[in-house]
Amino acid sequence: MAILLPLLIYSQQPSLRSLTIGDEVPDIRLSNILNYPVSNIQLSSLKNKPVILDFFGTWCGSCIAALPHLDSLQRKFDTSVQILVVCYEPTAKIRAFLKENPKAKGLKLPFVTADSILSNWFPHRAFPHEVWIDGNRKVSAITEARHVNEANLRKWFSGIALSLPFKYEQMKFDAGRSFFERGNGEIPPKFLFQSALSGYMTAIGGRTQGESKGIYPGTTRYYYLNYSVLALYRRVIEDRLPGNRIILEVQDSARFVLPADAKQRTDWQQKNLYCYEVTAPDLTPKSQLMQQMLSDLNNNLHLNGRIEQKRVKCRILIRNEKVQVANSGLPAESHVSKNGFSLRNKPVRTLLSHLNNWNIQERIPPIVLDETNYKGNIDLALQISDIRDLQALRAALQPFGLDMTEEERLVEVLVLTEKTP
């Protein structure tokens, strides 16, 4: 079945180019509109009403989370603004999403589906992406979703000039080339070795890592984009130690640990995420590159990270002698959820890996050691909201023939301290 696409209507067709703040938007005709009295509208039919285009994807968790907030704003300022959710996905898929997703049910927001025009006028890489168009069809702002709030809308309606942060995105970014090149398209002098560190890069979007051939023949590179300090140090030790073997001996851990309050996370990420890249000849051992990375992080983040033996409090996984260890012998599998995981016919080391990496991006989980002396595979299902709750964890383990104590052990860890000025 053919998918109808939005049509662009204007008297004289100009060459298609991306629009930015201050530009006038052509009188676009929008088709395939769901959740609206009619399925097609002309932009001018909104009769000088300001419009916010919310570019959206059903796979984007942040987009979905923003829907109730945008809907409440639409209801509150119904006669003053029109918020349009713009989707490139097919109409049938969006119709199913509106019917099935709990956050989408009962929305007042219209959805422009199967879009191929608006996304060309306003190109972007990261969702959600907000375009503010005033009553004269001029672009007032291009922002992140967090800037669409009641206070900013009231300023906009009253005629106060918006001075919101521009959501800049480098549309020509090529993941196959160094992202430290100016414009990501200029060829620098050939190099045999290079390492670089930068702050948060908005245009790149979420956390990305990779290992690939370098820009020039005979080189290899490792890159980590928009990583926290702890996540970068974990990459340094990942071939030697579990990711939770990091001891923070710092005055203030707020720089290192993601805030529990979701509202504070965007600002925290922009201040505390970094991008790192190292390139070296092909035959350079990874261990040598990770040692270089450790040196770069220590020197440029004013930290002293080093691996040492340290006596620390650990969780000790032991046998619960009152219950036989469960093992169904069925085909091996594992499932992970937000508040736990289940294992079937898996070795104890798999359980240990899950425990040592539980929500590791948001906090440093306790160090867990295996002293069960159990060599077989196990079945279990753990549902627990907080890995730090030892009593709850013990209660969850005991029915499966396992238990846990807390004792000091001499273990190898990465210790992070701050350098004095």
UniProtKB/TrEMBL annotation:
Keywords associated with the record: Isomerase
Domain (Thioredoxin): residue spans on this chain: 19-162
Entry keyword annotation includes Isomerase: yes
UniProt-recorded Gene Ontology molecular function terms: antioxidant activity; isomerase activity; oxidoreductase activity
InterPro entries: AhpC/TSA, Thioredoxin-like_sf, Thioredoxin_domain, Thioredoxin_ResA/DsbE_sf
Classification via CDD domains: TlpA_like_family
Pfam families: AhpC-TSA
Protein name: Thiol-disulfide isomerase or thioredoxin
Organism: Sediminibacterium ginsengisoli
Classification lineage: Bacteria, Pseudomonadati, Bacteroidota, Chitinophagia, Chitinophagales
